């Protein structure tokens, strides 16, 4: 394995996944890459830039039905097209939709291939993370499911145990659905409770199919959960189940929409808390998988204030040392961001001014976050021989 190499998969053509006047605006990805470039992250020693192609139909049909691919190709040229979850307010049709969606999948696939083949230890596609797409249906702004496509490729190419960790504010329902009955794939999702937020799934009792119990792990958190509660929940569940599962590689979806400024959800994380989550996932990969980690982006709708900073931190964690939180944002980027979204408050530093602390889970508590943690641990931990009530497990 190339110990000192990290792959960043990028091409401006990834910005063609553009639904128009829509929350999922590709400017967030453009600004992320521009900020990482201004901060020198992309010029670090050992950074390998990979230009992706489109995923082939063979790659896509490991997850998606062939007739769904046909529908995605047809939808932009048929003004009366309906069905398959397409041509809706959430999933509007746009020109060259198949090609743009297949390129997103090709980028995450290229990241997974680089790590699996050993040409890079870690890899990232910030344009990816479209985790809601189902085998035959678009959903939640997602046409094709790039994390699932990459995981399916890994399984076909020899991987026996893949852990998927999803920290988007929305449940990673598409990836869970694809692998719900497959004991080779562990899906772990921390998200705002489905009682309050799309897609309405991701309860603690969703634990995997009859031959894969324990390989779906869901941590539904109450609205207004901030850094302290979110990180307490993460560390009370994720390291234990991932260690017990013993994956060969970790794939992550790092949606930035759990931030307190995100307009579409109600968790209250800071950029600093999100940075801490990325550091924790890299540490797990280093501990368990010889460093093998594939990271993707995901949701995030505070297009200037949050997403570029969060994912520039992600790019830094993937490619080397984390950026110091107090890092000043270069003026050329602030000018670019202001020009792209006039009237938006452009941040000046890479921190929200907080210092997240990981508090130990107390085991029993009337706090709503701690009750959610206990529900998840009760549902899953015994399946791994762990004690759901013992904070040491």
TrEMBL record:
GO biological process, one term: acetoin catabolic process
GO molecular function: histone deacetylase activity
Region (Disordered): 328-364
Known pathway: Ketone degradation; acetoin degradation
InterPro entries, sorted: AcuC, HDACs, His_deacetylse_dom, His_deacetylse_dom_sf, Ureohydrolase_dom_sf
KW Flavoprotein (keyword) present: no
Record keywords, A-Z: Acetoin catabolism
Statement: the UniProt record of this protein carries the keyword Cell cycle: no
Domain Histone deacetylase as annotated: residue spans: 22-317
Family note: Belongs to the histone deacetylase family.
PANTHER family: HISTONE DEACETYLASE HDAC1, HISTONE DEACETYLASE HDAC1-RELATED
Protein name (database record): Acetoin utilization protein AcuC
Organism, scientific name: Actinoplanes campanulatus
Lineage of origin: Bacteria, Bacillati, Actinomycetota, Actinomycetes, Micromonosporales
């Amino acid at each position: 394995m190339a110990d000192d190499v990290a792959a960043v998969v990028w091409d401006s053509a990834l910005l063609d996944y553009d639904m128009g006047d829509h929350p999922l605006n590709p400017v967030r990805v453009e600004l992320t890459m521009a900020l990482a470039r201004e901060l020198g992250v992309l010029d670090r020693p050992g950074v390998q830039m990979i230009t992706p192609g489109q995923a082939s139909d063979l790659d896509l049909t490991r997850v998606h039905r062939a007739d769904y691919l046909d529908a995605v190709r047809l939808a932009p040229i048929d003004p009366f097209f309906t069905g398959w979850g397409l041509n809706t307010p959430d999933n509007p049709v746009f020109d060259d939709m198949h090609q743009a969606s297949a390129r997103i999948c090709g980028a995450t696939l290229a990241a997974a291939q680089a790590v699996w083949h050993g040409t890079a230890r870690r890899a990232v596609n910030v344009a990816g993370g479209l985790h809601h797409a189902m085998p035959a249906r678009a959903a939640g702004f997602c046409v094709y499911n790039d994390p699932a496509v990459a995981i399916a490729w890994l399984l076909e190419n020899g991987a026996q145990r893949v852990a998927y960790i999803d920290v988007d504010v929305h449940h990673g329902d598409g990836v869970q659905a694809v692998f719900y009955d497959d004991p080779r794939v562990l899906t772990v999702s921390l998200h705002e409770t489905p009682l309050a937020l799309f897609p309405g799934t991701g309860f603690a009792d969703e634990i995997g199919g009859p031959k894969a119990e324990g390989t779906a792990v869901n941590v539904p958190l109450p609205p207004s959960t901030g850094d302290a509660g979110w990180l307490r929940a993460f560390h009370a569940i994720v390291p234990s189940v991932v260690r017990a599962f013993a994956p060969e590689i970790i794939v992550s979806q790092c949606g930035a929409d759990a931030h307190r400024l995100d307009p579409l959800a109600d968790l209250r994380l800071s950029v600093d808390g999100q940075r801490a989550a990325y550091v924790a996932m890299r540490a797990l990969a280093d501990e368990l998988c010889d460093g093998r980690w594939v990271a993707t982006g995901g949701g995030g709708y505070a297009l200037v204030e949050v997403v570029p900073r969060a994912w520039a931190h992600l790019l830094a964690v993937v490619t080397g040392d984390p950026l110091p939180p107090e890092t000043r944002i270069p003026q050329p980027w602030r000018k670019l961001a202001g020009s792209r979204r006039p009237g938006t408050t452009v941040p000046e530093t890479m921190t929200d001014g907080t210092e997240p602390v990981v508090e130990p889970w107390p085991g029993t508590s009337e706090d709503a976050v701690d009750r959610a943690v206990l529900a998840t641990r009760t549902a899953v931990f015994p399946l791994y021989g762990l004690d759901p009530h013992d904070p040491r497990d």
